[in-house]
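Input.
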Amino acid sequence: FADSRDSVGDNTAHASMKLPHSYASEWQSLFHEPWSDDTIRGDAQIITESIKQKYEQCPEPEQALQQETSSVASREFTLDALAAGHANPLAYYYQTSLGLSHWGTKDGVDDREPFTLNGLQAYSIKERLFEAWSIGDDLVGEDLNSDTLSADIEGDHNSGLDVVFEHLIAEGALARQPLAGMHFNALAQDASALRTHMFASGRPVRLRIQSMAVEGSDVHISGDLYYTGHGQIELSLSKRVGRNFFGVWLKHVVWNYYLHHTKPKLSALGETHYISATQHITLPALSEETSVIYLQELLTYYDEVLVAPKLFLPETAYVQLFGKESEIKTTFSGGFNQGGESASLFWQRACYFSGLNHDPSDIPDMENLVPMAQISRHCDPDHGSRKKKQPSDPAREPSELNRWISVEKLK
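Output.
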């Protein structure tokens, strides 16, 4: 029972096997009981009869497999879904495949008018600001050419902000005037430094990839990417760039695969620039052979993410790649007035109940997981928390061995 609880169908079925929604709000109770040897041994002492009954209503693996056989011939994935699965595979598995969440539910509608913005609201508004600062016209893949990629695209950087402001007012996302204008202008000003770095090589253009077939697989990929004259651009509104770094890597591989298979003359522009308020990370262009191998590996890894929990913590993994040795333990366990990744309920559940038998206080071995293995091949061996090893098979990396990922700190 323990094995079937946190692994879906022995790697045969995934997204269709979600638990009932009512279970999503009750699984937190598993962590509210005092820990003992008895509770750790199994579910019998800690899961109520009602929760067990709800779990038993889930389809058997064989049923789920039958439900999916009709769609195996061709699968359509969005870039956002793939990036989310790679950015934090543990949370993605529990939230997407099992339909679980440890967010509390709201009791009705707040009858008080908000006069300030919380962190998530401000983050969401900044995302919409950057969308407005990019070129708004959607471009299909056939419109991508050397002129649009290399041109120094100019325009009013504040264009579209009035429309965003009007939409936010209509949605009730801002307080009434004059507070609405004050909050909105403060957010725009706060994001201006990041906008300066974003526009360093031209105003970003939105590229829409439509059902791109992946060589050697049954997968088609659709989604939006943003690019400038220097390559793809990704933004992080958070200082904690590790949270999304591995999702950015997935998009980087897709970007290079797209260029090689649709615009080979532009493949030299395969760099990705990941910009946050504190760092500018440049991912090097990949060869055609490497982009194919990497994307196939990442898609296989994504299938694994959907059917079983992965002992992977993105911020800790990022520090292992690019940070200092002393930062690894702090990122994992936490420090003074700072919580660590190991406090995540998803992490605790995976360690205790997935059958992986991992001590939640121990940093997991993540080096052999596909994203880490790929990225390690492009890390400068003279920098980071540990010495990076060269690829064991140089033929897999015919031209990238001297092209490292660069991490520049911004002032």
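The mean pLDDT is 75.
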